[in-house]
Every structure is written in structure tokens, then in C-alpha cells.
Amino acid sequence: MGYLKTFISAGAFALTLCLAGTASAAPDLSVMSAGERIAFTKAMPKGGELHNHIAGAVFPETLLAWAAEDGRCIDVPKLALAPPPCEAEGLRPAAEAIIDGELYSDLLDSFSTRQPGFLDRSGHDQFFGVFDRISGLGSGRAGDMLAVVMDDLAHQNTFYLEAMITPQGGPAAALGLTVGLKNDLAQMKAELDAAGMPALVTAAIDATDAMEARARQVLACGTPAARPGCQVTVRYLVQTIRVLPPEATFAQLQLGVALVQADRRWVGLQMVAPEDHPTALANYSLHMEMVGFLTGRGQLAPVALHAGELTFDYAPPEHLRDHVAQAVRVAGARRIGHGVDLPHEMGAEALVAEMARKGVLVEVNLTSNAVILGLGPEDHPYAWLRDRGTPVSLSTDDAGLLRIDLSHEYERAHAYGASYADLKQSARNALAFSFLAGEGLWADPGRYRQPVTVCRGQIGEQAPRGACAALVQSSDKAREQWRHEALLARFEESVAAMGRR
């Protein structure tokens, strides 16, 4: 299998792993040096990446190289990308600007959070402002972006991605503004369908085809020169924008539900943009009602929502009381992105117990929460959620803007009290709580003590047998879990062998 070749090459890392007790015991992260932990988590199979904004996943150096190739411009006063022509005052061709060492360095700072306090901006304002500053690249590099993310994950022994993208976002928003906001959501939905929503679904599918074709071309998939990224399975979440007028957001949500139902590559809905924005705060409850109505509380399309990405620095107390609760109970969310305000919510202990019981996963983004919200190990709810049995999975949020990768988040989790068992559970959760179609390998997702009956005694083997093979062949989720468990078994064997040496 090709992905095992990737694992073997990446797994042959030269380090001395410190093991607790016998050679077969679980690795003890606490006795490893930082370098050992970095190499260890890079090689560890991490299951999947559930919280990844493609537009923010590519490093600025790559964005600037593409801008130069495409003849884009640099707006020097704004330190932003701009479309051609580049003759207007303040504009310079990107190809010229990137060989200006001082300007190039400023652009890297402008397009990322690598320099705290850059231009006296907070981490929050710098992060959310990047998207406007890089928007001048245009949409022509979507396939290239996808290829970069796929290849990066494969080099980290991670082979599943749920990528957040806004398909036909502008046209859908414009359609919503044309129809206008109605008190009757069913009426608004009907009018949007009549006004041209089906055509936008077709356009979104065509754009997905083109994006994937370009990604395969960049990665040389299907050729002898195929790169590791070709082995990554990709599904998409429709990200809708919560800072638009509500009728525009509703139209994007409606498009998202229709797209999930029409194309198996699109597997769920998201809502993005700053949760603390005045428009987002004012319309939060309405947004949850809209999501619940359009998705049948998650029955017509799975829902994963950014919710609870708030602290007292960015919102008054009344907005920290129930955002996650509304996402789960009104919108029907099966996953929560960030959720850091959970300890502040009314009835917090009951809420996290409910989430544990229902299997509502929290996508944990440690670096993002530290940079944007100033939350470090001492005040982040990650350990509390783990202790309460609420499923969690580590993810990057915007790897390029934050200048990290998924392995970095796994290594960083050590400072938040995570053990190897916690990291292993995070990796398994990324697949068990993904929106992949089909039955999974585990009868107890989130605990992983009990495989489904047909696969008992086979987890971790190279190939499934009998009825288990039939399950793996017929189920997207079981297939990805089988691949991960095989990788994980080989990884742990390698670690144990190093410990014995």
C-alpha cells in the first residue's frame, strides 16, 4: 500500500524515544525533550484534520510566489495583495515586491501572525484581517491550495481532510439580498429556489470538479511521479459567513444543504467569521434557528459550527452564556469548533455531559486560541473537556496564517496535560466523528474498547477478512479508520522496537 511507504519513510526518524516501564508501554511524553516530541508527533498517524480553512492553510511565502506568477500586485500602504494592473499609486508588481527584502518581510508579517503586535494590532485583529489582505490573490488558486494542504498532511502521516470552503458564496449572498429577509423561513427558502438556487448548486459542483482536477494535476496523481498527497481523502464543509445580512447568510446555508444532498464530496455545514462581530452577535440566535430549520436539526445535512470562540475580552457576559448550547440544542450541531467559552455557559457541567452522551465533538485549536484569544494552558478548557468525557480532536484552524501544522498542535497539547493516550484518542476521534458516510469500525466511538462485531480481533491488521472486509469496502468511514489503525499499529511497533534498542 502506498501510504505505508509514506509511513515507513517518515517513521524512520533518528531519535531515542523514552518509554515508561517496559518497551511495550505507552510512550511517556513528559520525559521526552521538545525535539523528541516534535519528531514523535510528526511521525504519529493523526487520523484526520476536521477544522481547516483552506484559504488560511497556505503559508504566506507560497501565496506571494503564486501572486508573482499570476501577475498580481502588492498594495504597499496596505501590505495587501491586489488585482492587476499595477500602475496605480501605491501598487507594485508582486514579482518586483518580493525581491525587496524589507517589503517581503513586512508582507510575511502582514499575512500571518508570526510577529506579535505587528502594526500594533492584537492577535485577534491581525488574524481576522489577513483574509481581506490576501483576497487579492483571487480564486484561481483553489486547486493549488488544496494540493498544498493534502501533501502537507500526507507528510505528517494523516490521510483524511475536511476542508472548509465557501462555494458560490458571492452569488448565493446576492440571491439572498434580492429575495430579502422573511419572517417565514419556509417562504424564504421557496423564493430562493425559484430565484435560481438550483443553478448555484450546479455551479458549485462544477467548481469542485475543477478544483480537484487542478489539485490532482499539481500532485501528479495517477502518474509514476505521484506525490504523497494523492493518498489523502478529502471531503468538504460548506462555510457560510455569519457577518453578512441574515438573508445573505440564509441563502448560503440553503445552498450548503442542497449541495450536501447533491454531491457526496460535500458532507456538512459550517458558519465562519468572527463570532464577536456585532452583526454575528446580534443575529446569533436567528442563525441557529436558520441552521436548525434548513438542516432539520442535522438530519438533512450534518452540522459543525464555530461556537463559543469568545472570551470577556471580546464579548460581554450575556454572549458567553449559551452560544454552544444553542448550537447543539437549536441548530443540531454534531461538532463544535473551538468552544472555549464552555465553562462560562449556563449549566456548563450539564451541557458538557449532554455533549459527551450525544457524542458532540469539540474541535480543539490550541495555537489559534492562544493567538486570537490569549488562552494558554492554564485557562483553556481542553483538559476539562477530556476529563468530562466530551470527545475532542486537535486541529489547526488556519495553519498558514498561524505558521503551524497539525503535528505542532499534537506536540503543543503536551503543555495542556495531554498524554500519548490522549493524542491517540484525538486521532481516532477525527475519523469516528468525521462526516464520512457509512458505519465505522467502533461500537463505542470516543472510547475505542469495542470494535464492531464483524471486525473483532482484526483491528490493526494489514487487511480485513470476511464480513469485516465487506464493511471496509462498503463504508467510507470504516475504510479510513482501517487505514489509520494499520498505520497506528506499525507506528507503535516501530516505537516499541526503538525502545528495546
> What general outline do the C-alpha atoms trace?
globular
The percent range for helix content is: 40-55%
Sheet with most strands: strand arrangement: 1-5-6-7
Query: Whole-Å distance between the termini?
Result: 27 Å
The residue-averaged pLDDT reads 94
Percent strand equals 5-15%
Task: Tell me the radius of gyration.
Answer: 23 Å
Instruction: Quickly count the helices.
Output: 22
Name of the level-1 CATH class of the largest domain: Alpha Beta
CATH architecture of the largest domain: Alpha-Beta Barrel
CATH superfamily of the largest domain: Metal-dependent hydrolases
Low-confidence stretches: 1-24
In terms of structural class, how would the helical and strand content be classed? alpha/beta
User: How many strands, which pairing sense, and closed or not: the largest β-sheet?
Assistant: 4 strands, parallel
From the 3D structure, determine the CATH topology of the largest domain: TIM Barrel
Give short descriptive properties of this protein:
3 domains; 501 residues; disordered N terminus; alpha/beta; single chain; four-stranded parallel sheet; 11 strands; TIM Barrel
Briefly characterize the structure.
This protein has 501 residues and is an alpha/beta fold.
